[in-house]
Design a protein that fits this description.
The chain is an alpha+beta fold and 73 residues long. The protein contains 5 helices and 3 strands.
């Protein structure tokens, strides 16, 4: 059985808050908020709270990777 501290850790690995995702992506919370409002970043909204799945954010970032021409060779 998983203790409460470990369970909280496991949940934090999956879900991030607006502030946490802004820190993770090194962006402002207002930029993340604006992107979320128009559907440019994957979010979940429960009541008034926004949640972000870390693995979905990682996938979203990977899809936007820019490959320079000289790196293609």
């Amino acid at each position: 059985m998983v203790n409460k501290n470990k369970q909280s850790e496991l949940n934090m690995d999956k879900w991030l808050t607006l502030k946490q995702i802004a820190e993770y992506l090194q962006m402002s919370t207002s930029s993340i908020y604006k992107m979320g409002q128009v559907g440019k970043i994957p979010i979940y909204k429960v009541g008034r709270q926004w949640g972000f799945k870390k693995e979905e954010i990682d996938t979203w970032v990977e899809k936007r990777k820019v490959i320079r021409q000289k790196d293609k060779k």
